[in-house]
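Supplementary Methods, section 5.1.

A reviewer requested that the exact input to the structure prediction be made available. We therefore reproduce it here, unchanged from the version used in the analyses.
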Amino acid sequence: MGSSYLTSPLLLVINTLFDIYVLLVLLRFVLQWLRADFYNPVSQFIVRATAPPLKLLRRIIPSFAGQDMASLVLALLLLLVKYLLIRSLGAGIIEVVNMAAPIGSASIAGLIIIALAEVLATFINIFLFAIIIQVILSWVNTGGYNPVIGLIQTLSEPVMKPIRKFIPPLGGLDLTPLFASLGLMVVKMLIIPPIVFIALQL
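The structure derived from this sequence is encoded token-by-token as follows.
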């Protein structure tokens, strides 16, 4: 058995755990930004899961324009630690929006910019998946209150609302989710690769 026998599962665990926690941190930032229902059970879970490190960071990182900058810094720090761990295990490449980012040869400044690209990609994915999930739930929802549906609607509305002004329902069919999803995917494809390319030049 080669060295990858244990390295590959370890890389999987590191990627999964860090990515899930970064997602929770960024979800907390977005939900605060959108003023989502704080008493929603899902919101409460996200707040409690991310509270310990954020309490420490907020002592030295103030809010800016009413936004929780500590959450953004925590996400960047977590991704930077993830890259360094991955690099220490001999893996030199990660994938960011279908683009190979050779973190093995990147400088610390380059790693920070790659982390910024991944944060932006995660933000876009949050809105993209919220729209997709809302469409699926609209097919199977039997009515009644569901805390998950409430948060999904909160996340998808900032993207869907402006598009509805230009694309009204056609024959009772709402095409807003389709155009919103396509728009988000195009934005991600146009914005993230140049940022990664810049990081590789440092």
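Helices lie at 4-33, 41-57, 69-88, 108-140, 147-164, 176-200. These observations are discussed further in the main text.
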